[in-house]
Amino acid sequence: MYTVYEPKFYSFNGDYFTYAKLAADAGIEAIGVPSALLDQENRALELARLVWELGLRWGIMFTPVDFYAADVDDTLFERGIETLKRQAQTAAKMGVRYAYNHIWSSNPERSFERNFDWHVRRIRRVGRIFEDNGIRYGLEFLGPRDVLHRYEHPFVHSIAGVCALADAAELKAAFLFDTYHWYCEGARLDDLYFALAHTDRMVGLHVNDAAAGRKPEEQLDMERAMPMTTGLIDAGKIYQLFGSHGYEGPAACEPLHPSMEHFQEIGAQATAQEIARAYQMLASR
């Protein structure tokens, strides 16, 4: 398992050449994959050379379209697929090895069965592009109740659910594990140990903490905290468990709001240092 500095999670949208150097200086082992550069192959490969020279690795690639969102119709999906074909080729040349999408836990139109089949058709096409380029592609479940109850029809919101989708779509990989979504879904130990038993199909680990003063069912999707700060999620234990169970992929702190505002105030360099300290705490819990 290796640590990642993912600028997007701290609302930084600037120069990844600088971010890569900041990550290396802070002792972080990887840098996030810059989506904007995936359509600029020469520039992307220039960054890849710097990443290699700094001894860094890549984090997890984001897709150009939220492929499973309710408002992404067939036309937008096909456009996104064409963009993904180009970007996945560039990412493979850069040495990127992991990618993911989240799966929305409710939708306004389709019953569970129809939605499952709809997802499988799309996942199969997206997954094939990534696998053709040597990139492991997985799915993230969403645990917060505000997402589950956003629309009329509930959908998968657990690790079992996204793994069922991955299996039906014949993905070689399967899932990303996020400590916050796991906590909101009830912090079930059987779910955690299922993930630990299948780290060979895991593409990413997101570590964070929950908002203080709220029960799991009261948490909101975009409001989280840095790991081991509010004391609601034992992210250190989970981080170490994945390390001891053979997980070899990227791990990233994903605190979102209101931490984003804090990191914007202190800047990218101080953020990298703070993230590095968080990884040290996770490893030494």
Automatic annotation (TrEMBL):
What domain of life does the native source organism fall in?
Bacteria
SUPFAM superfamilies linked:
Xylose isomerase-like
Q: Which UniProt keywords apply?
A: Isomerase
Which residues are in the Xylose isomerase-like TIM barrel domain? 21-266
User: What is a GO molecular function of this protein?
Assistant: isomerase activity
Q: Which Pfam families match?
A: AP_endonuc_2
Q: Does the keyword RNA-binding apply?
A: no
Which PANTHER family is this protein grouped with?
A: HYDROXYPYRUVATE ISOMERASE, XYLOSE ISOMERASE-LIKE TIM BARREL DOMAIN-CONTAINING PROTEIN
Q: Per its record, how is this protein called by name?
A: Sugar phosphate isomerase/epimerase
